[in-house]
Automatic annotation (TrEMBL):
Gene3D superfamilies: NAD(P)-binding Rossmann-like Domain. InterPro entries: KR_dom (IPR057326), NAD(P)-bd_dom_sf (IPR036291), Peroxisomal_Beta-Oxidation (IPR051687), Sc_DH/Rdtase_CS (IPR020904), SDR_fam (IPR002347). It comes from the Bacteria. It comes from Marinobacter aromaticivorans. The lineage of its organism: Bacteria, Pseudomonadati, Pseudomonadota, Gammaproteobacteria, Pseudomonadales. It holds the Pfam family adh_short. Belongs to the short-chain dehydrogenases/reductases (SDR) family. This is SDR family NAD(P)-dependent oxidoreductase. Residues 5-201 form the Ketoreductase domain.
Length: 301
């Protein structure tokens, strides 16, 4: 399905990234496995995870190369794409999967923890995608697959930085789709449900949380990889600007913000009339303070 395509996967050394690299290669792609080998919080460097994935791909008869540049830097994004060009002569798809977590309740969150998460997720998605964009434009084709999260789409406790970054990726991905559509380039988001080191940081202080984590542990990364392979194929050239979710064997298409109610007056509004007329009229359609687990409350097995 992907014969002849060269695909960059950031955060490709572990979890969803690793499974994605292996499945892309299985379907014929040449893969750049980018991973700095940091911990769940993004700290540290270890080349082993990326190299191990590359070795596994080569042992199975595929082609791959390691990349250890950081997505958080402009030059890092350029270097990652250059690795694809230098090694394989082209770049066809970018899977923006690199991530970190520094959870904390909002009123205690540090500036450093906020900036670190946005730098990896949001800025990282921009840096690598922006480096690939001129090549996509020149060749008249290309695919971006960007990882978002229901923590941003719906909400979660203690993840203001992560939620902000993941919602930012949704807006960025849509802008990429709009700006590059005329060049035959697609851009879509995936909100994955799968066990990974990042999910492994979820607190398990009570039985409900322990049960939730136990269910997530059953959701394997290859379920997400299957959708990534599909979006990178030529058969999905018409699919762009969308937000998907994968939860075990379920695939979701998420809604996108659109007006659902309106209020109008020829006289113009005052604070008093807004509070007495508009808010009561809208109140039945207000969204509650839901978390991801409140919306996805059924057992996927």
């Amino acid at each position: 399905m992907l014969d002849g395509k060269v695909i960059v996967v950031t955060g490709g050394g572990r979890g969803i990234g690793r499974a994605t690299c292996l499945m892309l290669a299985e379907h014929g792609a040449k893969v750049v496995v980018n991973d700095i080998g940091g911990g769940a919080d993004g700290a540290g460097n270890d080349q082993a995870p990326a190299d191990e994935v590359v070795s596994a791909i080569k042992e199975a008869g595929g082609e791959a190369v390691s990349s250890f540049d950081s997505v958080t830097e402009w030059d890092g994004g350029q270097a990652i794409i250059q690795t694809a060009l230098d090694t394989f002569g082209q770049i066809d798809c970018v899977v923006n999967n690199a991530g970190n977590l520094r959870d904390g309740i909002f009123h205690k969150m540090s500036e450093q923890d906020f900036e670190s998460v946005l730098a990896v997720h949001l800025k990282g998605t921009f840096n690598v995608s922006r480096a690939a964009a001129p090549h996509f434009r020149q060749q008249g084709s290309g695919t971006f697959v960007n990882m978002t999260s229901t923590s941003g789409l719906i909400g979660n406790f203690g993840q203001a930085n992560y939620s902000a970054a993941k919602m930012g990726i949704v807006g960025l991905s849509k802008s990429m789709a709009l700006d590059m559509d005329r060049f035959g380039v697609t851009s879509n988001c995936i909100a994955p449900f799968a066990w990974s080191r990042l999910i492994g940081s979820i607190p398990t202080d009570d039985e409900a949380q322990k049960e939730r984590v136990a269910k997530i542990q059953k959701m394997t990364p290859d379920k997400i990889s299957t959708l990534v392979v599909s979006l990178c194929s030529d058969q999905a050239k018409h699919v762009t600007g969308q937000i998907f979710g994968v939860r075990n064997n379920e695939i979701f298409l998420f809604s996108q913000p659109r007006p659902i109610r309106s209020a109008h007056t020829s006289e113009g509004w005052t604070p008093e009339t807004i509070l007495s007329r508009v808010m009561p009229a809208f109140e039945a359609d207000f969204y509650p303070l839901s978390r991801s687990a409140d919306i996805f409350s059924w057992d996927p097995f």
